[in-house]
Amino acid sequence: MSNKAVLLITALSLTVTACAENGSKPMISNTTTGVVAGAAVGAVAGTAIVGGTVATIVGALAGAYIGGEIGKSLDDRDRKSMEQSTQTALNSSPAGKTSRWTNSESGSTGSVTPQPSYRDSKGRLCREYQETVNSKGQTQTGYRTACQESDGSWRIVNG
Residue 100 belongs to what H/E stretch? Predict the structure, then answer.
């Protein structure tokens, strides 16, 4: 992906986020995080599947929209439940075994299904995983990659 495309995707993502307002307050960081992460995943997917700058931009815009919707619908407890379930699944679940989380207060649920571990080019232990979130009547599914940090925690590196 070219540097121009990356800059354009970033600018578009931030513009979409900045334009979304809730009364007089900007949308909370959940939306911002979702938009930016979704744009990145969409850009990579567009480039990988179709190729070219147009596909990258279209993928980024679609990803930004989907990511923003997920971000808007999750509260702090949902995110904490999702993060804990993801860390546990990546640390100890075999490939293909789905771990689930639930927030009984919000009604949100989700699942994490890790794939086999591998070493990346930097020698880090990494895992791809599928993540599904059900919140406020909407279901979103995404694919991410996380690599293990020196402290044992997993950090998302793609998605």
Answer: strand 99-102
The answer to pTM > 0.70 is no
CA 75, 80, 85, 87 dihedral sign is: positive
Question: Between helices 3-19 and 29-49, what is the axis angle to 10°?
Answer: 150
> Mean pLDDT throughout 11-30?
41
- The mean pLDDT value of the chain amounts to 77
State the residue range of the domain holding 39. 3-73
State how far the Cα of 77 lies from the Cα of 157, in Å rounded to an integer. 23
Rounded CA separation 98/107 (Å) = 19
Spatial CA neighbour of 125 closest among 144, 147, 152, 145: 147
Residues 31 and 65 in one domain: yes
Same domain assignment for residues 81 and 62: no
- The number of distinct structural domains making up the chain is 2
Residue 39, SS3 per DSSP: helix
Asked whether residue 16 falls in the same domain as residue 80, the answer is: no
Please state, in angstroms and rounded to a whole number, the distance separating the CA atoms of residues 34 and 67. 4
Give the model's pLDDT for residue 46: 65
